[in-house]
Amino acid sequence: DVKVTQSSRYLVKRTGEKVFLECVQDMDHENMFWYRQDPGLGLRLIYFSYDVKMKEKGDIPEGYSVSREKKERFSLILESASTNQTSMYLCASSPPGGFFNQPQHFGDGTRLSIL
Amino acid sequence: AQKITQTQPGMFVQEKEAVTLDCTYDTSDQSYGLFWYKQPSSGEMIFLIYQGSYDEQNATEGRYSLNFQKARKSANLVISASQLGDSAMYFCAMREPISSNTGKLIFGQGTTLQVKP
């Protein structure tokens, strides 16, 4: 069965801290994604990666960076956490875009609070 | 630019009844894909059903079916015989055109469904 694992379900950090959210998938997927979910706004794409060491900005990349050193792992980094980054963060993976009807598979999400 | 709109922030349905969750989309592309996901209160996103723009038949998966009206650019999710476990948030999403090869999804705002016993 497909599995996307996010390192934490709940995380509390302080303003100004550097925060790492980790995501691991076991499906050998090329594509990996980081989303942010806020009430009334749905899911918004922060960054995605289509190969190791390759990354592209999504719709709301400001204040975030990512790292993909290995195919199975995609990390989201909050360089200097701020209270407006309190949110639910979801990681997903999928086969290459050519597999058009294949869904993205999601992790369980990380509820991040910045105090 | 592509856009997904879910106009129902919240809905109620009686157990065992059918319910329709609305989704409209905007795209200028001919080739696209539409997905529905369920998100229970625990947070995980569960894939429910897929509809391709060239699929001639409406997609069905068990109690889930998709009422796809291409001319109206709508892809409504129909849940038959609602169960208490169907209480969740539901998201409609559109895949970027196949030509982009990124597999990116654009999500609607979501609809919260509550099933009453």
The helix/strand series of chain A, from N terminus to C terminus, equals EEEEEEEEEEE
What Rg of chain A, in angstroms, do the CA atoms define? 13 Å
Q: Quote the beta fraction of chain A.
A: over 45%
**What's the shape of chain A?**
globular
* Element-by-element helix/strand order of chain B: EEEEEEEEEEEE
User: Mean of residue pLDDT of chain A?
Assistant: 93
Regions of chain A with pLDDT < 50 over 5+ consecutive residues?
Answer: none
- Counted by DSSP, the helix tally of chain B is 0
Task: Report helical residue fraction of chain A.
Answer: under 10%
Features of the shown structure:
heterodimer, A: 115 residues, mainly beta, seven-stranded mixed sheet, four-stranded antiparallel sheet, 0% helix, B: 117 residues
Brief summary of the model shown:
The complex is a heterodimer of chains A (115) and B (117). By secondary structure, chain A is mainly beta.
Overall description:
The complex is a heterodimer of chains A (115) and B (117). Helix content of chain A is 0%, strand content 56%. Chain A is built from no helices and 11 strands. The radius of gyration of chain A is 13 Å and the shape is globular. Chain A has 115 residues and is mainly beta. Chain A has strands at 4-6, 10-13, 19-25, 31-38, 42-51, 54-57, 64-70, 73-78, 87-94, 105-106, 110-114. Chain B is an all-beta fold. Chain B is built from no helices and 12 strands. Chain B starts with a strand and ends with a strand. At the A-B interface, strand 4, strand 5, strand 9 and strand 10 of A face strand 5, strand 6 and strand 10 of B.
